[in-house]
Amino acid sequence: RASGSATDWMGLPYRGQRHVMRDEPSVEKHAMVKVFVNPVRFRVAYEVEWRERVVENGAHFVVVDKPSGLPTVPTMDNYIENVLKQATLALDLENHLVPVSRLDVCTSGVTIFAKTRKFASVLNYALAQDSCQKRYRVLATGPVPLGTLRHCYWKAPGQPLRYRDFHPRLLRPLGSNGATHWGYAELEVAACRPVFGGRLFDCEVVLGTGKTHQIRLQMACIGSVVFGDSKYKPANGLQHGGPGSKESFNTRLFGEDPSKVGLHAERLTFELPANFEALLGDDEDGEDETGMASTGAAPSSSTSGMKHFSFAAAAPWWESAAGAAEVEAVLEAEAVEEIAREVEAMRKVVVADSEGEWDLDEGKAVVDYDAMGMELDEGLRRFLGLEPRRWVG
């Protein structure tokens, strides 16, 4: 640990089966304590000016513009490098913030925390209402049709999420106990425009439901996987047809979890009763040991008036000069890799004729890489076996 406080442990300590989240000075005799000494690190936490990332620091909640590459809340083995802890430190808050919404590690944008558990219940209720809108920007690798995207998702215990086209019958209860592993996911594509020379597409998306990895999976399902999403790119365009279906794909196709993708929570809008502060009464201690607050009951109000809240993040990372350069570098590297694969594939093509087999090197196939908008240096041309302007196989 960096200093004498218990919360300066990098690895989140456990006492028995419980997280030690408070600054507790001692541990009871014979108590079992588990500490992760080699936690997964998220060094983005130290590259951010956290006070500039605070969108709103209200009396009852805090809104933060989360960067990519960082968890929203403490992980099992890392208590320090996350948005919740860093925002708490930056604002010099006495109590731990209570998470209400969570974004994936690889996602950036608006996330909200309550200052007390009581208000967290109020917020959870508000975010579940139809009046709540969660708007995202998505950098997709293919065009996305405007309008509503509806999919079913398959989530069995211990299995990864898989998506397929919507069909109402999949939502009917299965088995004698009425259980079903199929759920429903919906989002609205409000806009989609080509960017980066038409190689990518910048989309505006409004969530209709809020499921784990929903946008990333729905985009992959239609063949327009989110830029940088190494987890779902290998299954881009594939769908799960259901248990035992020939359409099913093996989820071992899924790749490694990415640290940054083209997904940005742009704006969060919700409503609370106009007199919500009076309804709270004497609030309780905001410290929370378990993380996500309970959903809570509907806040009752003696008036019908509602107060509107809307919070926006800064522009998505790929719109900055550094972010655009990062995207261009990835696109160029992918294009070079694609050319290399095509050239290698052409060289390995074997064509059978009446005399036997012959290699395509004797054929007339042409790879015109200049027409693909690529400028390859002399070293790369020699590596690929290309002439200065084109290669004739």
Describe the model:
- This protein has 7 helices and 18 strands.
- It has 393 residues and is an alpha+beta fold.
- Strands 4, 5, 6, 7, 8, 9, 10, 11, 12, 13 and 14 form an 11-stranded mixed sheet that branches. It has a 3-stranded antiparallel sheet with strand order 2-1-3, with no helix packed on it. The chain has a two-stranded antiparallel sheet with strand order 15-16.
- The model is unreliable at 1-8, 286-303, 350-373 and 388-393 (pLDDT under 50).
Oligomerization category of the chains in this entry: single chain
User: Can you count the helices?
Assistant: 7
Shape: globular
Mean pLDDT: 78
> Gap between N and C termini, in Å?
62 Å
| Beta-strand percentage range | 15-25%
Structural class: alpha+beta
Structural topology:
Blueprint: E1 14-15, E2 18-19, E3 33-34, H1 50-53, E4 54-57, E5 61-66, H2 83-90, E6 98-99, E7 108-114, H3 117-127, E8 133-140, E9 147-154, E10 162-165, E11 182-195, E12 200-207, H4 214-221, E13 263-273, H5 276-280, E14 306-312, H6 321-348, E15 350-353, E16 356-359, E17 366-367, H7 378-384, E18 391-392
Parallel strand pairs: 7-13
Antiparallel strand pairs: 1-2, 1-3, 4-5, 5-7, 6-7, 8-12, 8-13, 9-10, 9-11, 11-12, 13-14, 15-16, 17-18
Summarize the structure.
With 393 residues, this protein is an alpha+beta fold. The protein contains seven helices and 18 strands.
